Fold:
Amino acid sequence: MTEEFSAERKDATSFTARRNAQHLGSLPFEDLSDFDRAARGLLAKSPERQIIGRFGHAVWNLDDYLFQDTPNAPDSTHPSLWRQARLNNIEGLFEVADGIYQVRGLDISNITFLRGDTGWIVIDPLTGQENAAAAKAMIDQHFGPRPIHAIIYTHSHTDHFGGVRGILTDEDIATGRVEIIAPTGFLEAAISENVLAGTAMLRRATYMYGALLPKDEKGHIDTGLGKGLPALPSVALIAPTRDVETTGTEITIDGVRMVFQITPGTEAPAEMNIFFPEWRALCMAENCTANMHNLYTLRGAQIRDALEWSKYIDESLQIYGPDSDVMFASHHWPRWGVEEITDYLSSQRDSYRYVHDQTLRLANLGLTMNEIAEELTMPATLGQEWFNRDYYGTISHNSKAVYQRYLGWFDGNPAHLNPHPPVEAGRRYVELAGGADALLAAARASFAKGDYRWVAEIVNHLVFADPTNEAARLLQADALEQLGYQSESGPWRDFYLTGATELRANGTMLKGLPGNAMGAGIVSSMTVDLLVDLIGVRLNGMRAVGTDTTVHLSVTDRSQEEWTIVVRRCTIHARRGHLGDADVVVTAQLEAFAALAAGNKKLEELEATGGITTVVGRDELQRVLGLLDVFEFGFEIVLP
Structure:
């Protein structure tokens, strides 16, 4: 085997270096105004370079990105992504306006503190408790300790609520003296999105966020939306005490007047923007950030509505734009001045509308999803704006999302209606190519020409036909690596490079890790019916043929909440109350039932701790539990 296709990481090829260098002349790199915005109002840098977690490890390490201090991008990084990465490195405590403060750069998201008459209102308490506590310590050090009167979750993604217990005390939570405000539908969206497909979604997230990649010029650079996710943080969820249901709702807490705009189905299923009239300040949550966002996120999620997203931004522009002197968000840096805010909101509005309308125009002309993604480009009036660039979402995969939302995965060609799965297709392609050696020879010729997309496509067939073929795996890895180096999108880069890493290692290092592991901080806000839905996803339908079992469940720490759970016709259903006769009678604490539902613990373990008591029908319960699959986190992605 030649050194060219060894298992080591490679430098950028001359093709990649030239391709990346071409962008220097096609984008306005001379415009440094974002660097001024990102540094404006800096009050203090983080006093600690590392945030240490519960395992004694660095949940967050600012020193990881010191290699990005130079403005000149290496050949192995798209210069536009390098620019975005350097902007996201600007961290600390910032004054957005008199009374509005943000800590940025200590998580993928921002935490915002609003100064009330006697204390703080906090917007989006980050992903991890450790990160949020570090941000609160910076505020306390600068302004002195002040109580928190309210927490606002702008939307239902973990990086905007998971750190809540890092800034609230047990007494705050027990007494309920702190209001927790969220858009209607928040709790259901926050829990359900990451549970039913949680194992697959989290596994793919290791690719999307480069969690297993080294942080260097050939590894993880940035997510585009922020530096990255915290490493194994403590995550919790405290349920909202007040839901905001309609646009125009006004709430005043500790002298801070807030007007809410509800924007469901935009960046999250439940999301809202907030206007502060006295400050003439507009919080756009995650609906407007300094990049093109995802209509479809590569970790997996429901498709977002580009048309409605565009219309909600226009509504923000109409209602609040003329009265806004500052606009800030849950990621990136603020914008100041009515004119600048208007231009920014208008352009982001138009970018989502453009992707939506032009995708459907081309679809109605007969182009398929992949053809549309190849043809569609942003006009210069939109694409030359840094905040519309492909750092997180891309016009390529966002156009596919629009197509899927309206037309689904099928492109109408009957040849694509029932294709062979990857392994069977791979074997047939290898045979068609004249065997493995012939396919590899053709792929190596394409690699030498810099046609890495084609190499990745054809060698993938050989890898799935014969994963023991080391030459195929290493060539596939080298092609993915160059594609990663060329990517402007942080998630695309991380997907490519993580795939290359696992191909070179001949598999993932995550094998054997359990899936659907849910901490107590999340479980406490979950509902029994959602947990039963999770059991339904685990139920092996064909093995359950003939099962007809009724379970009476009493949840002892939910005011004796009672449920009837029925397994019948290879499915599972739950209803409130003890209905009819039961084959199994069980009492359980919610956390114990959640561990059983997720497959994290066995029945006997939970019985030993008193979390579950089987009153009637233990053998039948064990039999039904034996019908449930146990998910593993470390399934293969780039290998069969």
Notes: The radius of gyration is 26 Å. Residues 1-24+419-509 form a domain with the Serine Threonine Protein Phosphatase 5, Tetratricopeptide repeat fold (CATH 1.25.40.880). The longest strand covers residues 548-555. The chain has a mean pLDDT of 96.
